[in-house]
From TrEMBL:
Residues 1-18 form the signal peptide. Keywords: Disulfide bond, Glycoprotein, Phosphoprotein, Repeat, Secreted, Signal. One of its GO terms (molecular function) is cysteine-type endopeptidase inhibitor activity. GO terms for cellular component: blood microparticle; extracellular matrix; Golgi apparatus. GO terms for biological process: acute-phase response; negative regulation of bone mineralization; ossification; positive regulation of phagocytosis; regulation of inflammatory response. PROSITE patterns: CYSTATIN_FETUIN_A, FETUIN_1, FETUIN_2. PANTHER family: ALPHA-2-HS-GLYCOPROTEIN (PTHR13814:SF6), FETUIN (PTHR13814). It comes from Chinchilla lanigera. Residues 27-133, 144-254 form the Cystatin fetuin-A-type domain. Residues 257-277 are annotated as: Disordered. CDD domains: CY (cd00042). The gene is AHSG. Gene3D superfamilies: 3.10.450.10. This is Alpha-2-HS-glycoprotein. It comes from the Eukaryota.
Length: 360
């Protein structure tokens, strides 16, 4: 009897060793640097940049984890975790992402951490679920690279707000086109020597011409223009010196708001109801309907040094919590090649993937 039990155990062990990992479990674990995995990650980053209206665009830095689930009646869902890095392009900047350099550590880089579910169907990728947050690099890491480089300052610091307003006033005084209003202060740094304030901010056009009227008297035009400015206000004995450079983006039509008495084809669900209702979870074992991600955009806190990505995807519950333990990514067992000459040759790690820029 003992021999039979031992034989049965050996047969089961041989079957587990010879079968591909995760066969029959409804999912597979591709390598993080596989071509299709990278396509799903790039689709996730593209979606992220489409949703973010404040702060800066983000670029893919590393794929941390990936698991692909079969989805009935069609397609596959990539449950993917990625790291991103903030670029120098503002979220409203139409410059293609591939032309936006990543902000370097010496400039106090910001890293994003995202968990997403990306549906692949007929070769097309679409995002079903998104949850992100971002954090600036630590002061210690910045000091290691550049001991004298300034760190990020709070965007509502009195010096920062004064520098942004002074720079915008200087730009409007020299600009012959539309009068611009301050849209947001995106980032700022207090420079010790020479004593100055560096600030980056977004602006939006008004219905007034520069030099005529005030912000209070200017209304939003039918076609508005956004712009992005970088400025330095230097404190000197004789007063302040302002240097500002702005890039104005092409005009964008303003979406007309429906009137209360105007007929509509469909009544949208109130935002409050969407926030209160739990997000629908895509089914991985039965028939399912593609449900767009539910998002509630919340204003960022006043005291902040950067725009946290979590404010673009606030109000979204984790799909893992609703789908149970079966959906949670699990640690894969260590796999080694057969022993040759008394030593085992380890298989290269499939995840996390390569670092495209730098790790912070």
């Amino acid at each position: 009897m003992k021999s039979f039990v031992l034989l049965l155990c050996l047969v089961q062990l041989w079957g587990c060793h010879s079968a591909p990992y995760a066969t029959g479990l409804g999912y597979r674990d591709p390598a993080c640097d596989d071509a299709e995995t990278e396509q799903a990650a790039l689709a996730a980053v593209n979606y992220l940049n489409q949703q973010v209206a404040r702060g800066f665009k983000h670029s893919l830095n590393q794929i941390d984890k990936v698991r692909v689930w079969s989805r009935r009646p069609f397609g596959e869902v990539y449950h993917i975790e990625i790291d991103t890095l903030e670029t120098v392009c503002h979220a409203l900047d139409p410059t293609p992402l591939e032309n936006c350099p990543v902000r370097q550590i010496s400039q106090h880089a910001v890293e994003g951490d995202c968990e997403m579910q990306v549906l692949k169907h007929d070769g097309q990728f679409s995002v079903l679920f998104a949850k992100c947050h971002s954090t600036p690099d630590s002061a210690e890491d910045v000091r290691k690279v550049c001991p004298v480089c300034p760190l990020l300052a709070e965007v509502n610091d009195t010096k920062v707000v004064h520098a942004a307003n002074a720079a915008l006033a200087s730009f409007n005084a020299l600009h012959n086109g539309s009068h611009f209003q301050l849209l947001e202060i995106s980032r700022a740094q207090l420079v010790p020597l020479p004593v100055s304030t560096y600030v980056e901010f977004a602006v939006v056009s008004t219905g007034c011409v520069a030099g005529e009227g005030t912000d209070a008297a200017c209304s939003q035009p039918v076609k508005k223009q956004h712009g992005f400015c970088k400025a330095t206000l230097t404190e000197k004995l004789a007063g302040e010196e302002v240097q500002v450079a702005c890039t104005i983006f092409p005009t964008q039509p303003v979406a007309l708001q429906p009137q209360p008495d105007a007929p509509t084809l469909a009544s949208p669900t109130p935002a409050a109801d969407q926030a209160a209702s739990p997000p629908l979870v895509p089914s991985f074992s039965g028939a399912a309907i593609v449900v767009p991600p539910m998002m509630v955009s919340l204003p960022p806190p006043v005291h902040r040094k950067h725009y946290d990505l979590r404010h673009s995807f606030a109000g979204m519950d984790s799909v893992e919590s609703a789908s149970g333990e079966a959906f949670k990514p699990k640690e894969k067992p260590a796999v080694t090649e057969p022993v040759i000459g008394g030593s085992a040759v380890p298989v290269p790690a499939r995840c996390p993937g390569r670092i495209r820029h730098f790790k912070i």
